[in-house]
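Ticket #4471: complex job returned nothing on first submit. Input attached below:
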Amino acid sequence: MSAIQQRLSEMQDTAAEWKRKRTNLLGYLLLLPAVLVFLVLSVGPVLYGIWLSFQSGFGFLDLQFVGLENYRRLLFDDPNFWSSVRTGAVYAAYSVVLQTTLGVAIALLLNESFRFENFVRTIVLVTYLIPTVAVAILFRWLLNAQVGIVNFSLTRYAPVDGAVNFFSEALALHTVVWASGWKFTIFVVLIILARLQSIDAELYELARINGANAIQRFRDVTYPQIRSALFLVILLRGIFMFNKFDMIWVLTEGGPFRQTETMVIYAYKTAFGQQSYGEGAAVTTLMFLLLATVSIVYFAAFSPEEEVEN
Amino acid sequence: MVTAGLAGCLGDDDTTSEDGGTKTLHLLSDVQVEQAQQMFEDAFDDWAENEADTNVEPNFEYVPSGEVRNTINLRLSAEDAPDLIFTSVSYHAQFGLRGHLRDLEDIVPSSVPDSVRMNLDGREVYVPGNLQMCSSWYRQDVYEEAGIEWGTTWEEQLHNYEVLDEHLPDDQDPTLYVANGSHPYMIYGHYHPMLSNGSQFIDRDSNDEPPYPVVDQEPHRSRAIEYLEFLQDAYEYSPDSVNFGYGEATQLFTTERVMDTKYPARALVNSFNENPEIAEHVKMGRFADTPAMQAGESEYQIATIGEGFSVPTTDVGASNPELAESYIDYFMSSDYYVDFLLTVPLHRVPADLDILHTDRYQANEIVQASPEYVSYIEEMAEGARFYTSLTGEETPTTYWDPLIRGTEIGPSMLAEPMVGRTEPEEAVDRAGDRLREEIPQFEEQFAE
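Support reply: We reran it on our side without changes. The output follows.
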């Protein structure tokens, strides 16, 4: 290679390098707004919340650094905190089981071919389109012991003597979970239905040829295909339900007698009821750590990557 | 006329406009009754026209009761304080303790008794507007049908409910409004009888002494346990719904399901407004004597809450404190104030008891129909104490309420043994332990 050719080659390399860098720079610049928004609206508040959890004081007035005192108090001196952890876990687990079971069943039904299938699929989506607060208010009225249509129907058409108090100590948690199920099951339906529709019909045909009945077809064809989606759904629903605030707050405000007081409700009451923002922030920080730990364990135990690859 | 809320919610603290020297008077309140809000606003119109020596625009911001403390806190923190605040006495106490409220000694009406004033280290930071004198209300017609009379002791009260339970049809239940498990402040209402039997959490001899916990010391421990045992029994007759809030509970009183409510005149007003044929049967009953009172070991004492005005200092962003004081002075001496009290007759008892006998107050039909309640108020008002000054002989102390209300002590102590989750003894001792831990923190905080 002559010196000129070598020089040209070097210049071309430099130009290519410059072009690559410019492209990268443009990419970074285009990303910058999104990164800034993420930092300001997500990372910032999270860090502020963690900082606040080390402070004590009335509201935002007279904040003082108290180290780990808020955590010590919650973890070792506050039975209500542990009660809220238990209630939150029960609410999340109960909701996930309910929503996943119903969601998969509904998705399997909707995956079948029938008249007006597109219309029905659209109608099913409606529950997801109604704001959660509106759903909660609707359920409050529907289940009202005095004027609720459910109690009216029960006392009029069913062998029920008196009005059922759906918000009593015994029933409040069930009521909140089923109301949440009505609203959020469709999330599971959507994910699973999308996965079901991508399954090759030939697999079912082969199973039928080999004499598999419906249960066997579900076990040997459907389930392996939706396992990775189920993994994701269970994880997401678990996190979402553990963090759920609006539905519970509007329905019960955490009562009666703390029967529906989950961690997030407890954090809200601590921060905005008692004006103890530091302790409230400590509850949410612990909640974050708890969810992160559970997620890591969940990933380690179920190895989703392998499922996806398969 | 009035732009209620919006400007305030948007943080419009531009209270002094340059053009024409117009100022804005920003009132923040948790008063929810529209007629009562209207009294503030009508009084403003008159005051602005006749008393204010400058052009003043109103900015009335009304927030729900559950949010008012947080709203005030945020505004003071942001140095965006309103010019005046009308809310519960305990909130004024909290902010007054931190030095954020002005001394209003000059405008507190001289007729207001010392027992309901709030004096913080020599500064009167609160203009008392009204008290809320709790008592029990019951349906006399239902009691008579069942052949019973109002119970004057705990035992008689519980016996009455057993009789009513037997007497009433299956689809009706006697309901003793003793608690709402979902809401700390609703359970908090139970401090009324609890305090009247001397089982209060904290005792103190004067303003100058630090508070100390007594709930786990005798005789208070035994009394507290007695009271919690009573609540355990009474719980059987309490509404078990999470959704029975203040309004709904008193609403139920107008139906045949609720025979007794501890809420004062709200229930009466509901009856008059919505079920007048029931209203004539609604009678006032005094709180039942406790075992300690029967034994002569404790005296009847009413703990009360109240509402009134305070004026934040300019340090936290208030712009027109002098105007605010002028407005309060005008409002409290006007007919608007009496009409404000009468928006919920007898529920808002005037801090100045002489108003009870004014023609304007007595013209109200509910007041006329309840002479026994007026007498009860007059008789008990002397012994009434705000939550903030339960046992103090001097002017109201301010520690008790923030301490109890700011923690989970009260609700836990009451709610858990009520539903049988813990034994009363355990609940009392746990409350004592918690108080012993928290009081030094409060002392330190207040000392600062």
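The beta strands of chain A are 55-58, 61-65. Closing as resolved unless it happens again.
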